[in-house]
Design goal:
InterPro entries: 4CMD/NDH-1_regulator, AhpD-like, CMD-like. One of its GO terms (molecular function) is peroxiredoxin activity. It holds the Pfam family CMD. This protein has six helices and no strands. Helix 3 packs antiparallel against helix 4 (55-68). It has two domains: 1-35, no CATH class; 36-107, AhpD-like (Up-down Bundle), CATH 1.20.1290.10. Helices cover 79% and strands 0% of the residues. With 107 residues, the protein is mainly alpha-helical. The radius of gyration is 14 Å and the shape is globular.
């Protein structure tokens, strides 16, 4: 996956161990399981990261979701689900990040 390759390529001596752990555990062991497809896993990740209000990571995972093939409308629906269960202040932040990522992607 391009995103994982870029994370590893852009890591320095300090951050490489955590990036390798992320690649092995998250992208390998978890994402490699056959019971859920990548689109489902991506949707879940967007919702969980949005619920945790991790805006920088949310932007990264949005890029991954777009690369995997989630549509703008599907991503919006994930975030509307978060708005209902987490709250409107989080939703406003989430949608702000989403607009920035979509703007980036269209340029």
């Amino acid at each position: 996956m391009d995103v994982v390759d870029n994370l590893l390529k852009n890591s320095d001596d300090f951050s490489m161990p955590v990036q390798e752990l992320l690649a092995e555990f998250c992208w390998g062991a978890a994402w490699g399981r056959p019971e859920l497809d990548r689109r489902s896993r991506s949707s879940l990740n967007l919702e969980m990261i949005a619920a945790l209000n991790g805006s920088e990571e949310l932007a990264n995972y949005m890029r991954i979701a777009i690369e995997i093939g989630l549509t703008k409308e599907e991503i919006r629906e994930c975030f509307l689900q978060v708005a209902v269960y987490v709250g409107m202040p989080a939703a406003l932040s989430i949608f702000k990040v989403a607009l920035q990522v979509f703007d980036e992607a269209s340029n």
